Q: What sequence folds into this?
């Protein structure tokens, strides 16, 4: 079976239209573009961009599909041409290539990941169909689609970087109470923006004064089994998890065993840990 090697062309930058609304990242950090620009000046561009023969609004011959940041960095480096692979693509094919390339990057914000999945959702694709198109797990996709089901105000807090995925998962229980959802989201966002990066829903919920009940030995053993089961796959494949989060779980487990927190508070502590397993 033979394969066709993509043909790389040198195309004038002035012939390429950058449709930024087409790119899920939209905003780039200036220092990243400057750093890439210095690398291009010294060593050249290692990865060609992808374009398609679709005219731009100002007479451009091509529209960029993937490589918006590379194009900007090449322009900043003072180059007039850029290496590009030309592909004949439909709008949907081009969009899928752009999203897949961006979602495989490690430096996207949560909001950028959510916006990338928004297009797949709008295409009426279910989680498993999305999994066929991008290299991510079912849980990874479902967690970010959850953000899209949140009210616009909560989504704006995510866009600003003031709510984490752990916050969104813990707020899910209030989806049928928009008044409480908005209230607790505001409090979480405010504390997080002020620098309290460890704030969780448990910190802001009204505390009910209940008598402490120390757990029985059997309850403790059962709960330990539950925790092992919940994180079995993670411990097997990501042993560094223990180093990063083991002390947090141990502390919260001790609080639960001695009756200082209830079952819901303890489970929320586990859910709020920022654990994301990328699909291999």
A:
């Amino acid at each position: 079976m033979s394969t066709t090697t993509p043909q790389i062309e040198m195309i004038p930058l002035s012939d390429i239209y950058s449709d930024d609304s087409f790119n899920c990242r939209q905003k780039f950090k200036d220092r990243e573009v400057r750093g890439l620009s210095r690398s291009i000046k010294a060593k050249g561009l290692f990865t060609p961009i992808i374009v398609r023969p679709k005219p731009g609004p100002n007479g451009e011959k091509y529209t960029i599909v993937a490589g918006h940041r590379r194009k900007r960095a090449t322009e900043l480096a003072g180059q007039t041409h850029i290496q590009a692979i030309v592909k004949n693509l439909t709008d949907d094919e081009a969009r899928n290539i752009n999203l897949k390339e961006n979602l495989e990057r490690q430096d996207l914000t949560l909001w950028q990941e959510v916006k990338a999945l928004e297009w797949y959702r709008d295409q009426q694709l279910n989680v498993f169909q999305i999994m066929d198109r991008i290299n991510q797990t079912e849980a990874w996709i479902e967690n970010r689609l959850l953000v899209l089901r949140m009210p616009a105000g909560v989504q704006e807090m995510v866009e600003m970087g003031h709510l984490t995925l752990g916050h969104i998962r813990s707020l899910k229980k209030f989806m049928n109470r928009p008044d409480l959802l908005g209230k607790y989201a505001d409090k979480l966002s405010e504390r997080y923006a002020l620098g309290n990066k460890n704030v969780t829903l448990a910190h802001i919920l009204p505390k009910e004064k209940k008598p402490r009940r120390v757990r029985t030995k059997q309850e403790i053993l059962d709960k330990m089994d539950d925790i092992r089961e919940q994180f079995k796959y993670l411990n097997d494949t990501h042993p560094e998890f223990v180093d990063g989060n083991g002390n947090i779980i141990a502390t919260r487990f001790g609080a639960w065993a001695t009756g200082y927190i209830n079952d819901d508070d303890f489970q929320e502590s586990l859910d709020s840990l920022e654990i994301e397993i990328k699909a291999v």
